[in-house]
Amino acid sequence: MQGAVSYSWAPGGQTSATINVDTTGFGLGVHDFTIHATGSNGCITTATISANFRDCTGIEDLVGNIRFSVYPNPNSGKFAVSFGSDSQEEVSLRIFSQSGATIVQYDNLPVNGSMIKSFDLKNMAAGTYLLQLENNHNRVVRKIMIVK
Which domains does the chain have, with CATH numbers? Predict the structure, then answer.
């Protein structure tokens, strides 16, 4: 705010003209930040800005007409696959090791609208695993990273 001689941000109490924010202490979602700027004449003006923190650590893609995302990725072995479709669709899902050993397999999962499938592979060793989704003539393979 041009001409201001002091600043106060809420939350946080910073006293600079600008601030940098991230999810630390706030988490995901929309958060409001308000600045109170005081001019040399003692007048105070206030402005509020909203920041939307989203989880951008996953994979988003399509297999046929089905949207899917894997989050978080990398993960500790606990993750989810979110599916979305505007029509009745089926998808087959397989998680396997790089050596080709199948760890999880679901055939002909029905997807109509939104669906989330959660996985707990925290007993698996750290490393790279492969997620294969197949629908009709479409096949997508993506890496999943388990870190300990």
Answer: 4-53 (no CATH), 59-146 (2.60.40.1930)
